[in-house]
Structures are given as C-alpha cells and as structure tokens.
Specification:
The protein is an alpha+beta fold. Helix content is 27%, strand content 31%. A three-stranded antiparallel β-sheet has the order 1-2-3, covered by helices on one side. It is extended, with a radius of gyration of 17 Å. The protein starts with a strand and ends with a helix.
Length: 84
C-alpha cells in the first residue's frame, strides 16, 4: 500500500494550527482512502472538566467548537493537487 502525506500549516505558522492529509492507495473498497488529522489544542484539566460538564448537560457555544486554519493560494493548490 502506498502512503502519501501532506502537512498543511496555517499562514500564522502556529504549530497548533496544522492539518495532516494522508492518502492511501490500494484500499480494498475503491482503491484510495483519504484521512484527515487535525491537531487538537490542549487545555488545563480544570478547563476540560468544565467544558465536559457543560457538554453533558447540552450546552453549546453559538460559535461551535472549532479552531481554524488560514490557507494561502499556494497551500490551496497543494491540497487540490494532493487530492487529485
């Protein structure tokens, strides 16, 4: 099985804003599989517990739970070429 990997860093160059795209050729189903890995930011234990309790009781931020990656034109082209 062939494995290709593309590491995408945010334009701000923060290591916390990264995306890893993996392409596996030779999959049994359709011949190609794609995996996306996203770096999750670590928070102090108390902050994670508070967030977990809010989640259990159904609280949601109106903005959602996400971070962002800013892509420049070259990076977008690299991603498109990688997926082709």
């Amino acid at each position: 099985m062939k494995d290709k990997t593309l590491l995408v860093l945010c334009d701000c160059q923060s290591a916390e804003h990264q995306l890893i795209l993996r392409k596996f050729e030779g999959d049994e189903i359709d011949g190609v599989s794609y995996y996306i890995e996203v770096h999750l930011t670590k928070f102090p234990i108390l902050e994670r517990i508070v967030y977990a309790v809010k989640y259990i009781f159904g609280h949601q931020s109106r903005y959602g739970a996400f971070d962002e990656i800013i892509l420049n034109d070259d990076t977008r082209k690299d991603i498109v070429n990688f997926l082709k």
